Amino acid sequence: MNSQDTLLVINAGSSSIKFYLYGISAERELSPILGGQLEGIGTQHSRLRVRDAQGQTMTERQIAPRHAADVRDAQEVVGTWLSGHLSGSPLAVGHRVVHGGPDLHAPVLVDDAIIEKLQSYTSLAPLHQPNNLAPMQVIRERLPHLPQVACFDTAFHRTHSAVADRYAVPEAMYQEGVRRYGFHGLSYEYVAQRVKRALPDLQGGKVVAAHIGSGVSACAMLDGKSVDSTMGFTALEGLPMGTRPGRLDPGIVLWLMERGMSHDEIQHFLYHDCGLKGLSGIGNDMRELEASDAPAARLALDYFAWRVAEGIVGLGCAMNGIDAIVFTAGIGENSAGMRARIARHWEWLGIRIDDARNAAHGPRISTEDSKIGVYVVRTNEELIIAQHTLDLVSAR
Length: 396
Ligand code: ADP
Known about the structure:
Strand content: 15-25%
Keywords: ATP-binding, Cytoplasm, Kinase, Magnesium, Metal-binding, Nucleotide-binding, Transferase
Bound molecules: adenosine-5'-diphosphate
Main location: cytoplasm
EC number: 2.7.2.1
Helix content: 25-40%
Family: Belongs to the acetokinase family.
Distance between the termini: 13 Å
Binding site for substrate: 96
Order of helices and strands: EEEEEHEEHHEHHEEEHHHHHEHHHEH
């Protein structure tokens, strides 16, 4: 491999495409070259921002709404920007894909059959999967010989036992794919790598990692392998999130149906109008809620902290104990206030947070005498995608 080789990583959601370019050294080390984001897809305020590895702005400009009406259009804009700024084509493109379904247990090279299979999982991740696949399809049409790799949020959880993989429903439904897939796996894989390198004392240990961002889940990791997750069949289950409710009595969905709501209305409600946003009536941004004096904001924060705390320690049942808890993602990495609020529910377990360490965002935020170590790790899903992409194209 020559020193000019690069890899592109794409993480596409409904309102933004994030992209990252990595250089590959002769020793196959990856180093970031640039990172960009086209946000506001489908709105009047689409913007393209690109920064180099030092954080210097390379581009920051408004994109005409007609050029970013959907994710496909937005990918065309990103592709045009990249081809104008790169000397050659990247070696390969790695994509974040939320759902790998029951069959795909590891990253795969993309071909037409894989795209078709991934499209068939759309109902399992209706708001994520089509957006994840759109850039892949655009690149395949424009540059059919450029290798592309799909990396799945579900793959890290395929080490679950038969019990962890099930709901208490008839076996026939399990065979049809009604399983507890789990998500945020690329983030957990990164956290597992960091724990192994940076916290060798925890090697082989019982770790609960909590990805607390817009989406929220927690994962029980035994010796770096996922044994259980709070998310299951879809990214709706488990802990409360920015706009999704997490745990919910299925009877509530029946109640909404009885009131005449359609499938699409219920889907929209569950993915966009619940969680912190629904509870507070203010919004889903943790910073805004933490700054607010409104009683409803306080209620939303109290609910969030309680249920997240409960979900994290509940995962101890999967491992018969917990040696360490690791916070990650937007809220987990940056909100000392929410971490402290969550940890207050763990005092009965002998968990103690050191205020100064917590304010400094760790890495260790618990006191020396805390019965369980509590840490903060900055996640890096893109690096995991780049590593998998490099591994797969090198093996070809
Ligand atoms: P995603 O990548 O899924 O969009 P993130 O991991 O970026 O989500 O997390 C977004 C959440 O993190 C938002 O609720 C945001 O308010 C919160 N967040 C980001 N920075 C801070 C901060 N400094 N303090 C509190 N919350 C923060």
